[in-house]
Amino acid sequence: MTKPTLLFVCTHNAGRSALGAALAREQAGDRAVVLSAGVNPAETASAGTIASLAEIGIDDSAHVPTKVTEELVRNATVVISMKPGLDLPEVDGVAYETWDLPNPQGWEAPAIRPLRDHIGDRVTELLDRVAPA
């Protein structure tokens, strides 16, 4: 069986989708391929996001926001929109999910913790469905 590819997408690929992808990589190990992208990527990842991940032992300091492309979507098994209304390519055969999450832009790590933990729980549930251990 081939590994599923999970693509986490938000607006800037600096906060929500970066959190989702980092948490999914950590939880999935080699059970899934995990990517992230943004419809309008920021120049750098959110410092608060990177700090909140570091608090739980995940080093995502090398994250560089990436633009979502039709090819990225086409190669995904599941595309997870981290907010409603993102303009994403519609590709037959790709599953889409929308998670309605607040935008942590400008938030410090302490404010991001509850969002990080909530996304972590959602990621666990997603992996149980698409890449069971």
Automatic annotation (TrEMBL):
<keyword id="KW-0059">Arsenical resistance</keyword>
<dbReference type="InterPro" id="IPR023485">
    <property type="entry name" value="Ptyr_pPase"/>
</dbReference>
<feature type="domain" description="Phosphotyrosine protein phosphatase I">
    <location>
        <begin position="4"/>
        <end position="129"/>
    </location>
</feature>
<dbReference type="InterPro" id="IPR036196">
    <property type="entry name" value="Ptyr_pPase_sf"/>
</dbReference>
<dbReference type="GO" id="GO:0046685">
    <property type="term" value="P:response to arsenic-containing substance"/>
</dbReference>
<dbReference type="Pfam" id="PF01451">
    <property type="entry name" value="LMWPc"/>
</dbReference>
<protein>
    <submittedName>
        <fullName>Unannotated protein</fullName>
    </submittedName>
</protein>
